[in-house]
């Protein structure tokens, strides 16, 4: 039987290997195999209903379009939601490029109906992804881009 100190070191080494293996296995996004490893690069094709694309072309959980404005009553910066599209399955990153403003793909559902965009006004599109680390699900911004409506 090995001395107690060696046994403790062996157990610690084994535990470290097992924990690392489990963590690495969970770090790969089982919510959508082949998902993004970081932020995406967004592009927008203009028109009255812009088309949003991103690379790498991985799935996202949510796409939202907002507009910031100054509220005259408090002279403070506020945000207004113009459109929110989510994955039909709230536990998967199902939305894939390209998505046209106001149009809901079959894998999505609209949670805030699209409001008309005003020509010359500035807006922001934000993509959100769902990640799984162990048993903890977290949302993070996968990409964002400010654009001006044509």
Structure notes:
With 150 residues, this protein is of the alpha+beta class. Helices cover 16% and strands 43% of the residues. The chain has one helix spanning 4-27; strands at residues 41-45, 51-55, 62-71, 76-87, 99-100, 108-112, 122-133, 136-148. The strands form 2 sheets. A 5-stranded antiparallel β-sheet has the order 6-4-3-7-8. Strands 1-2-5 form a 3-stranded antiparallel β-sheet, with no helix packed on it. Strand 3 (62-71) and strand 4 form a beta hairpin. The protein is globular, with a radius of gyration of 22 Å. Mean pLDDT is 82; it is low at 4-29.
Features:
150 residues, Immunoglobulin-like, 43% strand, globular, alpha+beta, three-stranded antiparallel beta sheet, five-stranded antiparallel beta sheet, 16% helix
Integer average pLDDT: 82
CATH architecture: Sandwich
State the helicity in percent bands.
Answer: 10-25%
Q: In what range is the share of β-strand residues?
A: 35-45%
CATH topology: Immunoglobulin-like
Largest sheet: 5 strands, antiparallel
Number of domain modules: 1
What's the β-strand tally? 8
Strand order of the largest sheet: 6-4-3-7-8
The string of secondary-structure elements, in order, is HEEEEEEEE
- Work out the radius of gyration: 22 Å
How many individual helices?
Answer: 1
CATH class type: Mainly Beta
């Amino acid at each position: 039987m090995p001395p107690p100190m060696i046994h403790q070191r062996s157990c610690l080494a084994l535990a470290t290997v097992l924990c690392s293996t489990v963590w690495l296995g969970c770090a790969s996004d089982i919510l959508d195999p082949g998902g993004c490893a970081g932020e995406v690069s967004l592009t927008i094709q203009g028109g009255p209903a812009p088309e949003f694309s991103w690379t790498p072309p991985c799935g996202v959980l949510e796409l939202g379009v907002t507009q910031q404005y100054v509220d005259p009553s408090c002279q403070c910066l506020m945000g207004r939601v113009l459109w929110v599209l989510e994955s039909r399955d709230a536990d998967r990153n199902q939305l894939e490029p390209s998505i046209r403003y106001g149009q809901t793909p079959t894998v999505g559902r609209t949670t805030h109906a699209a409001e008309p965009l005003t020509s010359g006004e500035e807006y922001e599109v934000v993509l959100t992804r769902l990640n799984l680390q162990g048993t903890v699900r977290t949302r993070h911004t996968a990409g964002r881009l400010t654009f001006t409506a044509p």
